[in-house]
């Protein structure tokens, strides 16, 4: 996942998003539909504050449209990622142990470009259209090994950044390596790897919008 980093004093707006989408089309990307991933930031809902140490102080829940029967839980403090049946949402609703603090939607367009799959994504808080971030998610479909795909991904990202630079936009894409081993994940890329990436992306957006501090 690449994050759009505006230059200091520049704004994140829909025009930038449109220009970035045009970059995919410049590379002959073919639009295949829309995509939406939702992430909920949960906090404990404790009546007895003395029990707070018995619970994780927060965790994230992630739903992916391509896996409607799954729900992913990320406990950042303990570096745990869990893949659960989507029915866990019903259980959580009944228990009321945790309450949603913030919800972010990752909405965008899905493109196919040869062996690559690209999502151009806008990050918006739930039930608003306020643009909080822009991301590009890149998948290289033939290889599931994180290590073996690094070089070809690096080469593609370099090409992508060059195409974007020709737009003379006030900002650039940045990329931070995700340490999957911290979450006990192996080299074979799975949906749990994707969940960890989205959790990292959401944390960045939540901090920027000051929702964590409220």
Task: Give the helix/strand layout.
Blueprint: E1 2-6, H1 14-26, E2 30-44, E3 59-63, E4 70-75, E5 80-85, H2 88-95, E6 98-113, E7 116-125, E8 133-140, H3 150-165, E9 171-174, H4 191-208
Antiparallel strand pairs: 1-8, 1-9, 2-3, 2-6, 3-4, 4-5, 6-7, 7-8
Helix content range: 25-40%
Order of helices and strands: EHEEEEHEEEHEH
- Count of DSSP-assigned helices: 4
| Estimated share of beta-strand residues | 35-45%
| Rg over alpha carbons | 18 Å
> Low-confidence runs (pLDDT<50, min 5 residues)?
210-214
Whole-number average pLDDT? 88
In this structure, how is the largest beta sheet organized? 9 strands, antiparallel
Features:
disordered C terminus, 9 strands, alpha+beta, Mediator of RNA polymerase II transcription subunit 20, 35% strand, globular, Hypothetical Protein Pfu-838710-001, 214 residues, 9-stranded antiparallel β-sheet, transcription coactivator activity, transcription, transcription regulation
How does this structure look, described?
- It is a single chain.
- The chain is built from four helices and nine strands, in the order E-H-E-E-E-E-H-E-E-E-H-E-H.
- The chain has 214 residues and is α+β, with helices and mostly antiparallel strands.
- It has a single domain (2-212), classed as Hypothetical Protein Pfu-838710-001 (Beta Barrel).
- A nine-stranded antiparallel sheet has the order 5-4-3-2-6-7-8-1-9, sandwiched between helices.
- Residues 210-214 have low confidence and may be disordered.
